[in-house]
Amino acid sequence: MSATLIAVALSLVSAGAYASAAVAQSRLAGRTDPSAGVLRLLGRGAWWAAVGLNAGGALLHVAALNYGPLTLVQPLGALTLVAAVPLGARAAGRRVGRTEWRGTVLTLLGLGALLLTTGGGSAPQDTLTLPEALGVGAATMAVVVGLSRPGARPGLRHAAASGITSGVASALTQTLTVAVTDRSGGPLFSWRLLTVALLVSAFAMGGLLLSQTAYRGGLGAPLAVVTLANPVAAAAIGLALLGERLQGGPVSLGLALLGAAAAVRGVILLSRAQARGADRAGADAAPGPLDPVASRVVIGSPRCADGTPLGASALGAGADPLGASPFTVGAEPLTVRAAAQPHP
151: which residues sit within 8 A by CB, 6+ positions away? Predict the structure, then answer.
């Protein structure tokens, strides 16, 4: 089996693990008070299950990066959203809608077009130098701080920050993996590898926490933003610093652009469909309006069936008691009677 096929197979399994983790995180976020801190999450079994799924997906992703370039492995991460659609629908107890299927097909077609332009990529050889790794880390931290500031749409901004940190962690992981598996006889441990390992750990944990915060508003749109930001960040590093290139000439470039447009359209459809599904579920779970119950207000003494107060004689027909005036309270007529006062 070629290195490219191994990278694709590992990426597919990794996407399934990430999708399961995203669904678990979304359900956990929906049951957790937004004001709860990180320590509260550490006591939840569902949180550790999501961490385990993310860790498994990350290990498979690392293995895929050892066999394929970033421009091949990272676009396959969009399959996380495709796998999350049926998993999320099943967890919510509903069927997958027509819009979700359309988004899934468009995403798969777009990824197929992208794979045709990157399928000729070989196993990665270049790695980031220590100054390059530090520069990438500093630039990423600046972007994350800017996206995490208070303001409108915090969920989408946190999702973008999560996708960027995860993509940068993938690029740094490739450097770490290639350097560790290098058989040229270089030192296994060095300041460069130690620094890159620390950056990978920090960005991976930061991306996990940012995604947990982003999923408080639902799974669809935040996961779509994470899915798009992740490969863009990683591919930018691969093309700018690692010497990776898209295969083919202008035809392949045009095919890649069409594939990217189709994938973006598919992700947008999926995010909209999942957002509508979340709104519909919230509307179904909301309590309905209470049935109006007629109020019965009785002011005055108890009355007989003919309306005569107990202990009083019936009034003659057409008689108007002292200042009697009818009012209506609720569904019942209300009669307020002035008490007769003796004249001095």
Answer: 157
Name 68's Cβ contacts closer than 8 Å, sequence gap at least 6.
Answer: 3, 4, 6, 7, 8, 11, 121, 123, 124
Place of tokens 């909209």: 272
> What local confidence, expressed as pLDDT, does residue 164 receive?
95
* Alpha carbon distance 238, 133 (integer Å): 12
Spatial separation of the C-alpha atoms in residues 34 and 20, rounded to whole Å: 22
DSSP assigned state of 316 = P
Closest by Cα among 285, 278, 141 to 216: 278
Q: Which tokens in the block code for residue 235?
A: 């591919």
CA atoms within 13 A on the CB side of 29: 21
CA dihedral 6, 7, 10, 15 (to 10 degrees): -150
- 3-state secondary structure at position 303: strand
Alpha-carbon span 338 to 216, nearest angstrom: 61
CA distance 158 to 218: 13
Q: Judging by DSSP bridges, how do beta strands 325-329 and 332-336 pair with one another?
A: antiparallel
Per-residue DSSP letter, 309: B
Six token digits for residue 45: 């079994």
Distance CA(341)–CA(322), nearest Å, equals 10
**327 φ, ψ (degrees, to nearest 5):** -130, 165
Quote the DSSP letter at residue 279. H
92-130 pLDDT, tens digit each? 777 878 888 888 888 888 877 877 776 555 556 678 889
Cα separation of 227 and 248, whole Å?
26
**Whether 237 contacts 181, CB under 8 Å:** no
- Between CA 223 and CA 220 the distance in angstroms is 5
Average pLDDT (83-97) is 79
Q: b vs e for 68-82, b when ≥16 Cβ sit within 10 Å of the residue's Cβ?
A: bbbbbbbbbbbbbbb
